[in-house]
Design goal:
39% of the residues lie in helices and 17% in strands. The protein has a 7-stranded mixed β-sheet with strand order 14-15-16-13-12-17-18, with helices on both faces. Bound molecules: nicotinamide-adenine-dinucleotide.
Length: 502
C-alpha cells in the first residue's frame, strides 16, 4: 500500500522492480582526469634499519601489485627474525644514546621537518598510495596524506610540552616500541603510530601491511632527508610472521597493533605473561542510525561516505544502516539514486568515487559475504555499473531485509557492502546498534540535540559522530570498546599510551 511519502515522490520505484537501464554514464561521460604526479618508484626496496637500506638476511623479496590493473609495482624485502633482531638492536641503541635523552624541543624539530617534507612531496605520496592500495586519488590526496602530515605537526607541537600531558605528574618514554599496521590507510596508520611514539621519546620498529608496503619505505626516505638519527625508526617489510616476530620481541617495551580482531587476539596470546604495554586497534561493525527527523539528503551523503568511502575498507565504516521505519523506503530510494551516480573505476582518475579492492583475496572474501547475504535471505541490490576489465573491482552493494542474525549484519566485511535494518524507537535503535561484538564507532542523524546526547552515552562505541561521519582530527582520540580493542590514538590520551607516569 502506498504511504503518503510515496505519493509525494512518484519517481521512486517500488522495491523489487529492476533498475532502469539508463545510467549516468550513458547521458554524458566525464573527460578522463588522471593524476599526473610522478610517484618516483624504485624497482626494489630494501629494509630500513639503523638509518640505512639493508638487504634482508633471507635474500628474498616479494612483489607488491597495483590492484587496479594487477601489474607489479616494485619488490620488497622479506624481513625475518634476524632482521627484526637487528632493527631492535638499532632502536635500543638509538633510544639509549640519542633519542631517549634528547630534550623534547629538539625532538619537535625533527617531527616538524618530517611533516613539512611530507607536505612537499604530498602529490607524489598520494599517487604512490593510490597505486599500492587501489584507493581513489581524491582520498589519498585530500585525506590520507594531509592527515598523516597533520599527525606529525600535531605531535611536534606536543614534544616540548609533555609536562602538560598529565598535569602534576612526570612522563618518561617507555623505550623501544614494536608496531604493526594494516593495508587500509597505509601511510596514515604509520603516522598515527610513529608520531606519538617519537614525540614521547620512544624509538620504533614498524611493519607495514604485506599488501601495501610502499609508502612506509617512502616515509623512511623522508626520515633520512630529515636527518632523523639512525635507528630511531626502523621499517621491516614482510608477511604476518614478521609482524609476529616484532610483537613478541623481548626488547619491545610496548607493542601497538592495528588490524583484524583475529590477529589481535593471536598477538595478545603470544605476549600474555610478559610486562609489555599494549594498544590494540581492531575491527568494527559500526551502526549509522538515521531518525525520521534527520536531514535525509545529508544523511544519505553521510551513509555513502560512511561505507563506500575507501571501498568500505575502513575499520570505522558505517557498515550497518539502522533507519527509522517511517522513512526507510524514502532513505533507501534516495540511497539507490545516489549509488547510481557513483563512479567506480581507475583510482588514479580524480573523478573516481570507488576505487579497487586491495587484493584478489579481499575481493573473494567480500564476494563470499554477498553470497552468504543472499543465501540467508537478505535482498541484494547493486547499481548498474561498468567495471574495468582488469583489477579487483566491485559495485557498491546494499542489502535490505537484513536481520540481526545475518552474517552480513554481524561480521566485519571490509568492503563496499551496506546491511540495512530498521527500527521504530530510540531504545530499539540503541539495542540493535550495541548488539555486536565490536564497538569502534557509530553515527547518529537527527535534528534533536537531546537525542544525540542520550545516544552518545548509551552507544558502546569509541567514536560517535552526530550528523556527520568519518571525521578525524589528530587532537581527537580514536579507539574502541569490546572486540574493537583498547588504547587510544591521537590527542593527549594517545600520548599517555606511549609513556611511563611517575
Ligand atoms: P590483518 O590483521 O590481517 O593484518 C594487519 C597487520 O598484521 C598486517 O601488517 C599483517 O601483515 C600483520 N599480521 C598478520 N598476522 C600477524 C601475526 N600473527 N602477528 C603479527 N602481525 C601479523 O588486518 P588487515 O587485513 O591488514 O586490515 C584490516 C583490519 O584492520 C580490519 O579488521 C580493520 O577493522 C582493522 N583496522 C582497525 C583500525 C582501528 O583503528 N581500529 C584501523 C584500520 C584497520
Amino acid at each position: 500500500m502506498a504511504t503518503p511519502t510515496d505519493r509525494k515522490r512518484p519517481t521512486l520505484r517500488p522495491q523489487g522492480r529492476p533498475a532502469p537501464k539508463l545510467i549516468f554514464g550513458d547521458l554524458w561521460e566525464y573527460d578522463p582526469a588522471p593524476e599526473t604526479a610522478d610517484p618516483k618508484l624504485k624497482p626494489r626496496y630494501e629494509l630500513f634499519i639503523n638509518g640505512r637500506w639493508v638487504a634482508p638476511a633471507s635474500g628474498r623479496y616479494f612483489d607488491s601489485i597495483n590492484p587496479a590493473n594487477e601489474t607489479k609495482l616494485a619488490e620488497f624485502a622479506l624481513g625475518g627474525t634476524a632482521d627484526v633482531d637487528a632493527a631492535y638492536r638499532a632502536a635500543q641503541r638509538a633510544f639509549t644514546t640519542v633519542w631517549g635523552r634528547m630534550p623534547g624541543g629538539e625532538r619537535a624539530k625533527y617531527l616538524f621537518r618530517i611533516a613539512r617534507l611530507l607536505q612537499d612531496r604530498a602529490r607524489e605520496f598520494a599517487v604512490a598510495e593510490t597505486l599500492d592500495s587501489g584507493k581513489p586519488i581524491k582520498e589519498s590526496r585530500d585525506f590520507d596524506v594531509p592527515m598523516a602530515a597533520a599527525h606529525f605537526f600535531y605531535h611536534a607541537g606536543w614534544a616540548d610540552k609533555l609536562d602538560y600531558v598529565a598535569p602534576g605528574r612526570k612522563v618518561a618514554p617507555l623505550g623501544v616500541v614494536g608496531q604493526v599496521v594494516p593495508w587500509n590507510f597505509p601511510l596514515l596508520m604509520l603516522a598515527w603510530k610513529i608520531a606519538p611514539a617519537l614525540a614521547m621519546g620512544n624509538c620504533v620498529v614498524i611493519k607495514p601491511a604485506t599488501n601495501t608496503p610502499l609508502t612506509a619505505l617512502k616515509l623512511a626516505e623522508i626520515f633520512q632527508d630529515a636527518g632523523l638519527p639512525p635507528g630511531v625508526v626502523n621499517v621491516i617489510t614482510g608477511p604476518g610472521s614478521t609482524g609476529g616476530a616484532i610483537m613478541a620481541h623481548p626488547t619491545a617495551a610496548k607493542i601497538a597493533f592495528t588490524g583484524s580482531t583475529e590477529v589481535g587476539k593471536t598477538i595478545m596470546r603470544s605476549v600474555a605473561g610478559t610486562d609489555k604495554r599494549m594498544t590494540m586497534e581492531l575491527g568494527g561493525k559500526a551502526a549509522n542510525i538515521v531518525f525520521d527527523d534527520a536531514p535525509l539528503d545529508q544523511a544519505v551523503e553521510g551513509i555513502v561516505n560512511g561505507i563506500f568511502f575507501n571501498q568500505g575498507e575502513v575499520c570505522c565504516a558505517g557498515s550497518r544502516l539502522l533507519v527509522q521505519e517511517s522513512v526507510a523506503r524514502l532513505v533507501v530510494g534516495k540511497l539507490r539514486n545516489r549509488l547510481r551516480v557513483l563512479r567506480v573505476g581507475n583510482p588514479l582518475d580524480k573523478n573516481t568515487d570507488v576505487g579497487a579492492i586491495v587484493s584478489r583475496d579481499q575481493l573473494n572474501t567480500i564476494q563470499a559475504y554477498l553470497k552468504a547475504g543472499v543465501e540467508e535471505g537478505a535482498v541484494m541490490w547493486q547499481p548498474p555499473c561498468r567495471l574495468p576489465p582488469k583489477g579487483f573491482f566491485m559495485p557498491p552493494t546494499i542489502f535490505t531485509g537484513v536481520t540481526q542474525s545475518h552474517r552480513i549484519a554481524r561480521e566485519e566485511i571490509f568492503g563496499p557492502v551496506l546491511a540495512i535494518l530498521t527500527f521504530r524507537t530510540v531504545e530499539e535503535a540503541v539495542e540493535k546498534a550495541n548488539n555486536t561484538a565490536y564497538g569502534l564507532s557509530a553515527g547518529v542523524w537527527t535534528d534533536k540535540g537531546s537525542r544525540i546526547l542520550k545516544l552518545s552515552t548509551e552507544l558502546k562505541a569509541g567514536v560517535i559522530w552526530a550528523n556527520t561521519f568519518n571525521k578525524f582530527d589528530p587532537a581527537s582520540p580514536f579507539g574502541g570498546y569490546k572486540e574493537s580493542g583498547f588504547g587510544r590514538e591521537g590527542g593527549r590520551q594517545g600520548l599517555l599510551d606511549y609513556c611511563k607516569l611517575t
